[in-house]
Write a structure and sequence with these properties.
By secondary structure, the chain is mainly β. It has no helices and 27 strands. The protein folds into 3 domains: about 35 residues, no CATH class; about 140 residues, no CATH class; about 100 residues, no CATH class. Strands 4, 5, 6, 7, 8, 9 and 10 form a 7-stranded mixed β-sheet that branches. The chain has a 6-stranded mixed β-sheet with strand order 3-11-12-13-14-15, with no helix packed on it. Strand 12 and strand 13 form a beta hairpin. The chain is elongated.
Length: about 300
């Protein structure tokens, strides 16, 4: 915990017995006041950029900043078993001197699964209609979220199933956004929530879904938590409790990124989930919480 030290100089005019009649002595009193600074709040690993910047081809195209890896994302074919606003696509990675390229083909299915195929193929490029996704940038194409952690890499995750992949030159790997993965982890171990909705999971099997809307932080769809009778939701306004209510996040709950025990960063807030209570800290140092025992602030 960092401390701020402030030194105040107070001037006092005090008569002293040792002085002659009518003489005043000016004494400077130094007072040290110790204040507690708010705890530091992490900065987001990724900055969201608009999808409109990547329009091209059959839908959207983008490339890593070194130009080696390219992806194309397009709406699923008509008649395909779909979820809301489905996406399909492919990514290729190739650099001069290599005999073949890495090819990834993926689709989002009605059972919210992520499927891919990594296989070598002859080198080809899509031309100059792709746009660069720079390291530290994130873009959302419906339920497919893509981002870049390094100049030579692109990653995408299906928000309905949480499955994702990263392609960097010849290296291909899969991951799940609920798990600890270096792509979503700060140097201090804080895990990044890149979903627009987070699901807080507690040790007793209970959970609640939360999102942020400007100054409001809303949580709903509580299960297994000690909320007032007839309520399953709560809102906080600028870090202060705004009262319980009823409601959930509807079909978007299926897109929530899970957050069990651990420390997380979500929507500009630090979140510490002990397994029984999740405490949120704002950049100003205000705290509010939800958990097995209900909710509150301060």
């Amino acid at each position: 915990m960092s401390l701020l030290r402030r030194v105040l100089a107070a001037l006092a005019v005090l008569p002293l017995a040792a002085c002659g009649p009518g003489e005043d002595v000016v004494v400077t009193e130094v007072v040290t006041v110790t204040e507690t600074a708010p705890p530091p709040v992490s900065e987001a690993l990724y900055r969201e950029v608009p999808a409109e910047s990547f329009v091209g081809g059959r839908g959207h195209t983008f490339a890593s900043s070194d130009g080696v890896t390219e992806c194309e994302v397009f709406p699923a074919l008509e008649g395909m078993d779909t979820v809301l606003d489905p996406r399909a696509g492919e990514c290729v990675s190739w650099s001069p001197g290599r005999a073949d390229e890495s090819l990834i083909v993926f689709s989002q299915n009605s059972d919210a699964s992520f499927s891919s195929d990594a296989s070598p193929s002859l080198p080809r490029r899509w031309g100059n209609d792709h746009h660069t996704l720079h390291p530290g940038e994130l873009v959302r194409f419906g339920p497919l979220t893509c981002f870049s952690a390094r100049p030579d890499a692109l990653a995408c995750v299906d928000v309905y199933g949480g499955e994702g992949f990263e392609l960097a030159d010849e290296a291909y790997r899969e991951f799940h956004w609920d798990d600890a993965v270096d792509l979503l982890e700060h140097p201090d171990g804080t895990r990044e929530i890149i979903g627009e909705l987070m699901r807080l999971d507690f040790d007793n099997g209970g959970h609640i879904f939360c999102d942020r809307n400007d100054d409001y932080f809303n949580c709903g769809g509580a299960t297994g938590l000690n909320f007032p009778p007839g309520s399953n939701a709560v809102s906080f306004y600028r870090g202060a409790e705004d009262g319980p209510g009823t409601g959930d996040m509807g079909q978007f709950q299926a897109q929530a990124q899970g957050a069990g025990r651990g420390v997380f960063f979500f929507a500009g807030l630090n979140v510490e989930n002990t397994g029984t209570r999740a405490t949120f800290t704002t950049p100003e140092g205000k705290k509010f919480w939800v958990g097995v025992d209900g909710f509150g602030d301060g």
